[in-house]
Design goal:
This protein is mainly beta and 245 residues long. The chain has three helices and 16 strands. Strands 1-11-10-14-13-12-16 form a seven-stranded mixed barrel. It starts with a strand and ends with a strand. 40% of the residues are buried.
Length: 245
C-alpha cells in the first residue's frame, strides 16, 4: 500500500449486471480487471436502426427491464458461461433465446436485437462506487427510504465518516480495496451524472420523478463516482478501502 493511503471505509456490497439495464447479481467477491468487474454489462439489447451515440434499450424505454434477473450459469467462467434470464413472469430463458427478445421487443413496441461486447456496454466508465450515506441523504431529500440499486453501483461503500457525498472527494485520486501488494486499486476519474433510471424502483419498476429531482437539487445531478482499474485484483464484501491523500 502507498504510504499516504488512509482508511476510509469498507465494501458493503458488490453488484454485477450481466445484462445492461437488467437487475444486478449480488456477489460475495468479484475480480476487477481493465474493463471493470469481470462479466459486468457484457450483454445489451439495442434499439434496431438507432444510429445515435446511445442505442441501448434500457429502463428509459422499458422500465420493466429492471425486473428481469440475469445470472451466469457458471460464475467461475463468465467468458464462456451461458447467461440465463428470469423474466418477471417467472420464465427463465437463455440470453439469446427468441422468446426473450420477442418479449422485450414487445414491451418496447419496436424491433430490437442483442449484442455482446467483451469490453462491456458501459455508459461512460467501467466501475461505479457509491456510499450508503449518500443514498440515505437522497432518501431524506425525497422523503422515503431509497434502495441503493436505483443507482446501479458496482461497489456499495460504508464510509468511516458516515458523511454523505464524501466519496466525491476521491475524484482525481486512487482508492485501494483490500490489502497486500495484489489488492485492487482504482483510479477515481469523475462524478457520475445521473439520468431517469434513478426514478425507477428496482422492485416494482414504478417511476418516481422526485428521486432524480432530489439528485439535481442536492448534487447538481451527480450521484456516485466513476473509476477505472489502476491495478486489477479481487475485491470482497467487507474489504477495507483506503484512499490516497
Amino acid at each position: 500500500m502507498y504510504s499516504d493511503f488512509n482508511y476510509v471505509g469498507r465494501v458493503k456490497a458488490i453488484l454485477r449486471y450481466p445484462v445492461k439495464s437488467m437487475r444486478g447479481e449480488s456477489l460475495d467477491q468479484a475480480e476487477i480487471g481493465w474493463y471493470g468487474i469481470e462479466g459486468d454489462r457484457r450483454w445489451a439489447f439495442v434499439k434496431s436502426g438507432d444510429t445515435s451515440h446511445f442505442p441501448w434499450l434500457t429502463g428509459r424505454e422499458v422500465p420493466e427491464m429492471v425486473l428481469y434477473s440475469p445470472r451466469y450459469d457458471d460464475r467461475s467462467d463468465t467468458k464462456q458461461s451461458q447467461v440465463l434470464v428470469k423474466t418477471p413472469g417467472g420464465d427463465e430463458w437463455t440470453i439469446n433465446s427468441p422468446e426473450l427478445l420477442s418479449e422485450l421487443a414487445g414491451r418496447y413496441g419496436r424491433p430490437a436485437h442483442l449484442i455482446h461486447l467483451g469490453k462491456g456496454c458501459h455508459d461512460a466508465m467501467p466501475l461505479s462506487l457509491l456510499s450508503t450515506a449518500t443514498v440515505e441523504s437522497f432518501g431524506q431529500e425525497v422523503g422515503l427510504p431509497l434502495d441503493p440499486r436505483r443507482f446501479r453501483p458496482n461497489i456499495l461503500v460504508e464510509l468511516v465518516s458516515g458523511k454523505a457525498y464524501d466519496e466525491d472527494g476521491w475524484v482525481g485520486g486512487v482508492v485501494q480495496i483490500g490489502e497486500g501488494p495484489k489488492a485492487a486499486r482504482i483510479q477515481v476519474n469523475r462524478r457520475n451524472v445521473r439520468c431517469v433510471m434513478t426514478n425507477i424502483d428496482p422492485e416494482t419498476a414504478q417511476r418516481d420523478p422526485r428521486v432524480l429531482k432530489a439528485v439535481v437539487r442536492a448534487r447538481d445531478e451527480c450521484a456516485a463516482i466513476y473509476g477505472s482499474a489502476e491495478q486489477p485484483g479481487v475485491v470482497r464484501v467487507g474489504d477495507p478501502i483506503y484512499r490516497n491523500e
